Amino acid sequence: MKINDLEPGMLLRPVDGRKPAISPLNAESPLDCDPLELVMISDEEGTENFIMMYLGCKHQNFLIDGVNKHHIISTRGKTVLTTGYQFRYLIPDNAHSL
To answer: Among candidates 16, 9, 15, which has minimal Cα distance to 87?
Structure first.
């Protein structure tokens, strides 16, 4: 998926063979969320039930993977940050569209 195709409120899911992992950040997030990062890792099991909502992006005063433009995602009751690099492993989830 390309970043230019993202819109706030869009539902996303991982491509087959990838699984989201939520890991702690070493930086403090100025947002009202836990300093967590979404990273896509290889996985043999299916991820059909893992749905994420894209909330938007924000330039911040700390780096993740060397960039300060962070994308905000809501998943499984948590608000997490990620970089544009991770979106190559995400696709729109048309099955759960409104």
So the answer is: 15
Residue 86 pLDDT > 90, yes or no? Answer: no
Question: Could you tell me the two tokens for 80?
Answer: 């997490």
Question: Tens of pLDDT along 35-62?
Answer: 556 666 666 555 556 788 999 998 988 8
- Residue 13: Cβ-neighbour burial (10 angstroms; 0-12, 13-18, 19+): buried
- Is the Cβ–Cβ distance between 85 and 65 less than 8 Å? yes
Residue 33 has a CB neighbour count (10 Å cut-off) of 14
Is residue 87 a contact partner of residue 57, using CB atoms and an 8 Å limit?
Answer: no
pTM of the model: 0.76
Distance CA 98, CA 18 (A): 25
